[in-house]
Amino acid sequence: MTFTSPYLLLTLLALPASAVIYWITQRRRMRYAVRYTNVDLLAAVGGGREWRRYVAPSLLALALATLCVALARPHVHAVVTSDKATVVMVLDVSGSMHSTDVKPSRLAAAQKAMHIFLDHTPKRLKVGLVLFAAEAEVATPPTTDHALVGQAIDAAGDFQGFGGTAIGDALAVAVRVGLQSIGISRPGGNAAPDANVRQLAAVTTPAANGLVSILFLSDGRQNRGALKPLQGAARARDAGIPVYTVALGSNGTSLQVPSQPGGFNGGFTIISPNGPFPNLAGLEPDPKTLRAIARMTGGRFFRAKTAGSAESAYRTLGSSIGRRPGRIEVTDDFLAGALVLLVLGGGLSALWAPRLP
Fold this sequence. Notes:
Helix content: 40-55%
Structural class: alpha/beta
Radius of gyration: 32 Å
Number of strands: 11
Mean pLDDT: 78
Number of domains: 2
CATH architecture of the largest domain: 3-Layer(aba) Sandwich
Strand content: 15-25%
Strand order of the largest sheet: 5-4-3-6-7-10
Number of helices: 11
Order of helices and strands: EHHHEEHEEHHHEHEEEHEHEH
Protein backbone atom coordinates (compact mmCIF):
# COMPACT_ATOMS: atom_id res chain seq x y z
CA MET A 1 0.00 0.00 0.00
CA THR A 2 1.22 3.52 -0.86
CA PHE A 3 0.01 6.98 0.17
CA THR A 4 -0.37 10.28 -1.66
CA SER A 5 0.31 12.25 1.56
CA PRO A 6 2.19 9.89 3.86
CA TYR A 7 3.07 12.66 6.33
CA LEU A 8 -0.62 12.80 7.28
CA LEU A 9 -0.15 9.40 8.90
CA LEU A 10 1.27 11.40 11.81
CA THR A 11 -2.36 12.01 12.77
CA LEU A 12 -2.28 8.45 14.10
CA LEU A 13 -0.54 9.98 17.13
CA ALA A 14 -4.04 11.05 18.13
CA LEU A 15 -4.65 7.45 19.19
CA PRO A 16 -2.27 7.36 22.13
CA ALA A 17 -3.56 10.81 23.11
CA SER A 18 -7.08 9.41 23.13
CA ALA A 19 -5.90 6.48 25.23
CA VAL A 20 -4.45 8.86 27.80
CA ILE A 21 -7.69 10.85 27.92
CA TYR A 22 -9.65 7.62 28.35
CA TRP A 23 -7.36 6.50 31.20
CA ILE A 24 -7.77 9.84 32.99
CA THR A 25 -11.54 9.58 32.60
CA GLN A 26 -11.55 6.12 34.15
CA ARG A 27 -9.53 7.33 37.14
CA ARG A 28 -12.03 10.12 37.77
CA ARG A 29 -14.83 7.56 37.75
CA MET A 30 -12.95 5.50 40.31
CA ARG A 31 -12.63 8.52 42.66
CA TYR A 32 -16.32 9.25 42.24
CA ALA A 33 -17.13 5.65 43.13
CA VAL A 34 -15.20 5.95 46.40
CA ARG A 35 -17.22 9.03 47.39
CA TYR A 36 -20.55 7.46 46.49
CA THR A 37 -22.44 6.53 49.64
CA ASN A 38 -24.87 3.98 48.22
CA VAL A 39 -22.49 1.22 47.11
CA ASP A 40 -25.29 -1.28 46.45
CA LEU A 41 -26.98 1.10 44.03
CA LEU A 42 -23.66 1.79 42.28
CA ALA A 43 -23.08 -1.95 41.85
CA ALA A 44 -26.53 -2.33 40.32
CA VAL A 45 -25.84 0.52 37.87
CA GLY A 46 -22.44 -0.82 36.83
CA GLY A 47 -23.31 -4.50 36.84
CA GLY A 48 -23.03 -6.73 33.80
CA ARG A 49 -20.31 -8.27 31.75
CA GLU A 50 -17.03 -6.48 32.35
CA TRP A 51 -15.70 -6.89 28.76
CA ARG A 52 -18.50 -4.79 27.33
CA ARG A 53 -16.89 -1.70 28.81
CA TYR A 54 -14.04 -1.96 26.34
CA VAL A 55 -15.91 -2.77 23.11
CA ALA A 56 -17.26 0.70 22.26
CA PRO A 57 -13.98 2.54 23.07
CA SER A 58 -12.04 -0.01 21.01
CA LEU A 59 -14.34 0.49 18.02
CA LEU A 60 -14.04 4.25 18.38
CA ALA A 61 -10.24 4.00 18.44
CA LEU A 62 -10.25 1.76 15.37
CA ALA A 63 -12.55 4.19 13.54
CA LEU A 64 -10.23 7.04 14.40
CA ALA A 65 -7.22 5.10 13.08
CA THR A 66 -9.10 4.34 9.86
CA LEU A 67 -9.92 8.03 9.36
CA CYS A 68 -6.27 8.94 9.91
CA VAL A 69 -5.19 6.49 7.21
CA ALA A 70 -7.89 7.85 4.86
CA LEU A 71 -6.44 11.35 5.26
CA ALA A 72 -3.19 10.11 3.71
CA ARG A 73 -5.11 8.92 0.58
CA PRO A 74 -4.04 5.26 0.39
CA HIS A 75 -3.53 3.37 -2.85
CA VAL A 76 -3.26 -0.36 -3.46
CA HIS A 77 -1.56 -2.21 -6.30
CA ALA A 78 -4.09 -3.77 -8.68
CA VAL A 79 -4.77 -4.55 -12.32
CA VAL A 80 -6.37 -1.46 -13.83
CA THR A 81 -7.79 -0.38 -17.17
CA SER A 82 -5.96 2.41 -18.97
CA ASP A 83 -8.11 5.26 -20.26
CA LYS A 84 -6.30 4.88 -23.60
CA ALA A 85 -6.43 1.09 -23.82
CA THR A 86 -7.89 -0.13 -27.10
CA VAL A 87 -8.88 -3.53 -28.47
CA VAL A 88 -9.51 -3.96 -32.17
CA MET A 89 -11.62 -7.04 -32.89
CA VAL A 90 -11.16 -8.47 -36.36
CA LEU A 91 -13.81 -10.82 -37.73
CA ASP A 92 -13.63 -12.97 -40.83
CA VAL A 93 -16.95 -12.65 -42.69
CA SER A 94 -16.07 -14.58 -45.83
CA GLY A 95 -18.57 -17.01 -47.29
CA SER A 96 -17.13 -19.98 -45.41
CA MET A 97 -18.23 -18.39 -42.13
CA HIS A 98 -21.75 -19.59 -42.96
CA SER A 99 -20.59 -23.19 -42.67
CA THR A 100 -22.53 -25.21 -40.11
CA ASP A 101 -19.75 -27.47 -38.84
CA VAL A 102 -19.78 -25.13 -35.81
CA LYS A 103 -23.36 -24.82 -34.60
CA PRO A 104 -25.48 -22.97 -35.48
CA SER A 105 -22.91 -21.57 -37.90
CA ARG A 106 -19.36 -20.31 -37.70
CA LEU A 107 -20.47 -16.71 -38.02
CA ALA A 108 -23.22 -17.00 -35.41
CA ALA A 109 -20.84 -18.70 -32.98
CA ALA A 110 -18.24 -15.97 -33.51
CA GLN A 111 -20.83 -13.24 -33.00
CA LYS A 112 -22.00 -14.75 -29.72
CA ALA A 113 -18.41 -15.17 -28.53
CA MET A 114 -17.68 -11.50 -29.28
CA HIS A 115 -20.71 -10.43 -27.27
CA ILE A 116 -19.33 -12.47 -24.37
CA PHE A 117 -16.06 -10.57 -24.74
CA LEU A 118 -17.91 -7.25 -24.51
CA ASP A 119 -19.76 -8.46 -21.41
CA HIS A 120 -16.51 -9.31 -19.61
CA THR A 121 -14.34 -6.40 -20.68
CA PRO A 122 -14.02 -3.13 -18.68
CA LYS A 123 -16.55 -0.47 -19.63
CA ARG A 124 -13.79 2.13 -20.08
CA LEU A 125 -11.99 -0.02 -22.66
CA LYS A 126 -12.26 1.28 -26.21
CA VAL A 127 -13.29 -1.47 -28.62
CA GLY A 128 -13.33 -1.32 -32.41
CA LEU A 129 -14.44 -3.78 -35.07
CA VAL A 130 -12.86 -4.62 -38.43
CA LEU A 131 -14.62 -6.98 -40.85
CA PHE A 132 -12.77 -8.67 -43.68
CA ALA A 133 -13.06 -11.13 -46.52
CA ALA A 134 -11.18 -10.30 -49.73
CA GLU A 135 -10.88 -6.76 -48.35
CA ALA A 136 -10.99 -5.27 -44.85
CA GLU A 137 -13.42 -2.60 -43.68
CA VAL A 138 -13.71 -0.68 -40.42
CA ALA A 139 -17.20 -1.43 -39.12
CA THR A 140 -16.81 0.54 -35.86
CA PRO A 141 -13.92 2.81 -34.84
CA PRO A 142 -12.68 2.19 -31.28
CA THR A 143 -15.25 3.47 -28.77
CA THR A 144 -16.35 2.93 -25.19
CA ASP A 145 -19.93 2.54 -26.47
CA HIS A 146 -19.91 -1.25 -26.36
CA ALA A 147 -23.59 -1.39 -27.30
CA LEU A 148 -22.72 0.26 -30.63
CA VAL A 149 -19.98 -2.32 -31.21
CA GLY A 150 -22.47 -5.06 -30.38
CA GLN A 151 -24.84 -3.75 -33.02
CA ALA A 152 -22.05 -3.80 -35.59
CA ILE A 153 -21.26 -7.38 -34.62
CA ASP A 154 -24.89 -8.37 -35.15
CA ALA A 155 -24.87 -6.73 -38.57
CA ALA A 156 -21.67 -8.47 -39.67
CA GLY A 157 -23.64 -10.98 -41.73
CA ASP A 158 -24.67 -8.17 -44.08
CA PHE A 159 -21.06 -7.56 -45.10
CA GLN A 160 -20.65 -8.58 -48.73
CA GLY A 161 -17.49 -10.55 -48.33
CA PHE A 162 -17.74 -13.67 -50.47
CA GLY A 163 -14.50 -13.05 -52.29
CA GLY A 164 -11.86 -14.79 -50.19
CA THR A 165 -9.75 -14.34 -47.05
CA ALA A 166 -7.18 -11.54 -46.78
CA ILE A 167 -5.58 -12.08 -43.38
CA GLY A 168 -2.49 -9.91 -43.92
CA ASP A 169 -4.45 -6.89 -45.15
CA ALA A 170 -6.93 -7.21 -42.28
CA LEU A 171 -4.08 -7.15 -39.76
CA ALA A 172 -2.62 -4.01 -41.39
CA VAL A 173 -5.97 -2.22 -41.17
CA ALA A 174 -6.37 -3.26 -37.53
CA VAL A 175 -2.89 -1.89 -36.75
CA ARG A 176 -3.80 1.43 -38.35
CA VAL A 177 -7.08 1.65 -36.43
CA GLY A 178 -5.41 0.79 -33.13
CA LEU A 179 -2.62 3.36 -33.52
CA GLN A 180 -5.06 6.08 -34.50
CA SER A 181 -7.08 5.30 -31.39
CA ILE A 182 -4.16 6.21 -29.12
CA GLY A 183 -3.39 9.42 -30.95
CA ILE A 184 -0.93 8.37 -33.62
CA SER A 185 -2.49 10.11 -36.59
CA ARG A 186 -2.67 8.87 -40.12
CA PRO A 187 0.17 10.40 -42.14
CA GLY A 188 -0.88 13.16 -44.51
CA GLY A 189 0.15 13.80 -48.07
CA ASN A 190 -0.65 11.81 -51.16
CA ALA A 191 0.91 8.53 -50.04
CA ALA A 192 -0.80 5.39 -51.20
CA PRO A 193 -3.02 3.66 -48.62
CA ASP A 194 -0.58 0.80 -48.23
CA ALA A 195 2.26 3.26 -47.65
CA ASN A 196 0.23 4.99 -44.97
CA VAL A 197 -0.38 1.70 -43.21
CA ARG A 198 3.32 0.89 -43.40
CA GLN A 199 4.30 4.22 -41.85
CA LEU A 200 1.78 3.83 -39.06
CA ALA A 201 2.84 0.31 -38.25
CA ALA A 202 6.47 1.30 -38.13
CA VAL A 203 5.88 3.66 -35.19
CA THR A 204 7.38 2.11 -32.08
CA THR A 205 6.92 4.47 -29.16
CA PRO A 206 6.21 3.69 -25.50
CA ALA A 207 2.73 5.17 -26.07
CA ALA A 208 1.91 2.37 -28.49
CA ASN A 209 3.33 -0.51 -26.49
CA GLY A 210 0.79 -2.19 -24.26
CA LEU A 211 -2.09 0.16 -25.05
CA VAL A 212 -3.45 -1.59 -28.14
CA SER A 213 -4.36 -5.24 -28.69
CA ILE A 214 -5.84 -7.01 -31.68
CA LEU A 215 -8.31 -9.87 -31.30
CA PHE A 216 -8.33 -11.74 -34.61
CA LEU A 217 -10.74 -14.53 -35.65
CA SER A 218 -10.63 -16.40 -38.94
CA ASP A 219 -11.88 -19.72 -40.22
CA GLY A 220 -9.77 -20.08 -43.33
CA ARG A 221 -6.44 -19.86 -45.06
CA GLN A 222 -5.36 -16.71 -46.86
CA ASN A 223 -6.23 -16.73 -50.55
CA ARG A 224 -6.57 -13.00 -51.26
CA GLY A 225 -4.86 -9.73 -50.39
CA ALA A 226 -1.66 -7.81 -51.02
CA LEU A 227 0.06 -8.70 -47.73
CA LYS A 228 0.89 -12.18 -46.57
CA PRO A 229 -0.30 -13.08 -43.04
CA LEU A 230 3.15 -12.85 -41.48
CA GLN A 231 3.78 -9.52 -43.20
CA GLY A 232 0.68 -8.15 -41.50
CA ALA A 233 1.84 -9.71 -38.23
CA ALA A 234 5.23 -8.02 -38.60
CA ARG A 235 3.51 -4.64 -38.76
CA ALA A 236 1.67 -5.38 -35.54
CA ARG A 237 4.89 -6.56 -33.90
CA ASP A 238 6.79 -3.43 -35.01
CA ALA A 239 4.04 -1.25 -33.54
CA GLY A 240 4.18 -3.13 -30.24
CA ILE A 241 0.65 -4.56 -30.66
CA PRO A 242 -0.01 -8.16 -29.57
CA VAL A 243 -2.40 -10.15 -31.73
CA TYR A 244 -4.61 -12.78 -30.08
CA THR A 245 -5.77 -15.23 -32.73
CA VAL A 246 -8.69 -17.65 -32.81
CA ALA A 247 -8.90 -20.38 -35.46
CA LEU A 248 -12.59 -21.26 -35.78
CA GLY A 249 -13.90 -24.41 -37.44
CA SER A 250 -13.33 -28.14 -37.66
CA ASN A 251 -10.71 -30.02 -39.65
CA GLY A 252 -13.26 -32.08 -41.55
CA THR A 253 -12.96 -32.80 -45.24
CA SER A 254 -16.39 -31.40 -46.14
CA LEU A 255 -18.24 -28.24 -45.21
CA GLN A 256 -21.95 -27.67 -45.76
CA VAL A 257 -22.50 -24.01 -46.58
CA PRO A 258 -26.18 -22.89 -46.76
CA SER A 259 -27.39 -21.33 -49.97
CA GLN A 260 -26.81 -17.57 -50.13
CA PRO A 261 -28.47 -15.18 -52.56
CA GLY A 262 -25.90 -14.53 -55.22
CA GLY A 263 -23.47 -16.85 -53.50
CA PHE A 264 -20.83 -18.94 -55.19
CA ASN A 265 -21.88 -22.36 -53.98
CA GLY A 266 -25.62 -22.53 -54.59
CA GLY A 267 -26.18 -24.47 -51.36
CA PHE A 268 -24.09 -27.51 -52.34
CA THR A 269 -21.69 -29.36 -50.08
CA ILE A 270 -18.20 -28.05 -50.70
CA ILE A 271 -15.33 -30.52 -50.47
CA SER A 272 -12.07 -29.03 -49.25
CA PRO A 273 -9.22 -28.53 -49.40
CA ASN A 274 -8.32 -30.98 -52.16
CA GLY A 275 -11.71 -32.00 -53.51
CA PRO A 276 -13.49 -30.92 -56.71
CA PHE A 277 -13.20 -27.27 -55.61
CA PRO A 278 -9.45 -26.82 -55.08
CA ASN A 279 -9.70 -23.02 -55.33
CA LEU A 280 -11.82 -22.97 -52.16
CA ALA A 281 -9.10 -24.33 -49.91
CA GLY A 282 -9.50 -21.25 -47.69
CA LEU A 283 -12.63 -22.79 -46.19
CA GLU A 284 -10.63 -24.84 -43.71
CA PRO A 285 -8.94 -23.23 -40.64
CA ASP A 286 -5.24 -22.51 -40.74
CA PRO A 287 -4.17 -22.88 -37.10
CA LYS A 288 -0.48 -23.04 -38.01
CA THR A 289 -0.48 -19.55 -39.50
CA LEU A 290 -2.64 -18.03 -36.77
CA ARG A 291 -0.42 -19.56 -34.10
CA ALA A 292 2.63 -18.07 -35.82
CA ILE A 293 0.96 -14.63 -35.87
CA ALA A 294 0.26 -14.81 -32.14
CA ARG A 295 3.80 -15.98 -31.37
CA MET A 296 5.41 -13.28 -33.51
CA THR A 297 3.44 -10.44 -31.89
CA GLY A 298 3.48 -11.65 -28.29
CA GLY A 299 -0.19 -12.58 -28.26
CA ARG A 300 -1.90 -15.90 -27.66
CA PHE A 301 -3.44 -18.51 -29.94
CA PHE A 302 -6.78 -20.29 -29.39
CA ARG A 303 -8.12 -23.27 -31.31
CA ALA A 304 -11.93 -23.28 -31.43
CA LYS A 305 -13.55 -26.32 -33.03
CA THR A 306 -16.90 -25.72 -31.32
CA ALA A 307 -19.04 -22.75 -30.32
CA GLY A 308 -18.33 -23.50 -26.67
CA SER A 309 -14.57 -23.33 -27.11
CA ALA A 310 -14.88 -20.03 -29.01
CA GLU A 311 -16.97 -18.58 -26.18
CA SER A 312 -14.44 -19.80 -23.63
CA ALA A 313 -11.59 -18.12 -25.53
CA TYR A 314 -13.38 -14.79 -25.71
CA ARG A 315 -14.45 -14.98 -22.08
CA THR A 316 -10.81 -15.49 -21.09
CA LEU A 317 -9.66 -12.61 -23.27
CA GLY A 318 -12.42 -10.33 -21.99
CA SER A 319 -11.17 -10.85 -18.45
CA SER A 320 -7.53 -10.09 -19.26
CA ILE A 321 -7.05 -7.83 -22.30
CA GLY A 322 -6.88 -4.09 -21.76
CA ARG A 323 -5.64 -4.30 -18.20
CA ARG A 324 -2.23 -3.53 -16.75
CA PRO A 325 -0.61 -3.34 -13.31
CA GLY A 326 -1.38 -0.06 -11.60
CA ARG A 327 -2.62 1.63 -8.45
CA ILE A 328 -6.16 2.27 -7.23
CA GLU A 329 -7.03 4.85 -4.60
CA VAL A 330 -9.04 3.31 -1.77
CA THR A 331 -9.69 6.41 0.35
CA ASP A 332 -13.45 5.98 -0.02
CA ASP A 333 -13.21 2.42 1.26
CA PHE A 334 -11.41 3.58 4.39
CA LEU A 335 -13.97 6.35 4.97
CA ALA A 336 -16.81 3.88 4.60
CA GLY A 337 -15.10 1.50 7.02
CA ALA A 338 -14.66 4.29 9.58
CA LEU A 339 -18.35 5.20 9.30
CA VAL A 340 -19.39 1.59 9.88
CA LEU A 341 -17.15 1.35 12.96
CA LEU A 342 -18.52 4.60 14.36
CA VAL A 343 -22.13 3.52 13.87
CA LEU A 344 -21.43 0.09 15.33
CA GLY A 345 -19.59 1.53 18.34
CA GLY A 346 -22.32 4.09 18.99
CA GLY A 347 -25.06 1.50 18.69
CA LEU A 348 -23.38 -0.93 21.10
CA SER A 349 -22.64 1.87 23.53
CA ALA A 350 -26.30 2.89 23.60
CA LEU A 351 -27.44 -0.71 23.87
CA TRP A 352 -25.13 -1.66 26.72
CA ALA A 353 -25.16 1.64 28.61
CA PRO A 354 -26.03 1.11 32.30
CA ARG A 355 -29.42 2.35 33.39
CA LEU A 356 -30.52 3.57 36.81
CA PRO A 357 -32.98 1.16 38.45
